[in-house]
Amino acid sequence: MSRRPAPRPAAGAFRAALDRSAPRTGLAALQSVWAEVAGERVADVARPVSERAGEVTIACADAVWAEELDLMQERLLEALRGRLGDDAPRALRFRVRND
To answer: How confident is the model at residue 72 (pLDDT cuts 50, 70, 90)?
Structure first.
């Protein structure tokens, strides 16, 4: 008589499926670590939306956040380089989102 292994939690399978289906782009990599690098509070009001030639555009809730994050750009880039290595953007551009 053979024993069947105990069922595994579905969360691991879902995470693996999501990881395999995610696009393999610099923007997708940045989006996946943004909340961790920028912090939850910042991630609630600003999100990476596009990338072109190494420059990532971050859409912000308002002009105050865009200005504040622009002042924090070097710290954010350093944290992104530490997390993404060569896949980190070379620059960030902050704009007010239109939603």
So the answer is: very high
Q: What is the pLDDT of residue 14?
A: 67
CA distance 47 to 44: 8
Would the pTM of this model clear 0.90, i.e. be above it? no
**Which stretches does DSSP call E strand in the chain?**
46-52, 55-60, 91-96
Identify the three-state secondary structure at position 89. coil
60-63 contacts, C-beta under 8 A, 24 or more apart: 60/94, 60/95, 60/96, 60/97, 61/96, 61/97, 62/96, 63/96
37 alpha carbon, distance to own chain's centre: 8
Give the H/E segment covering residue 35. helix 26-38
Burial of 8 (0-12, 13-18, 19+ CB in 10 A): exposed
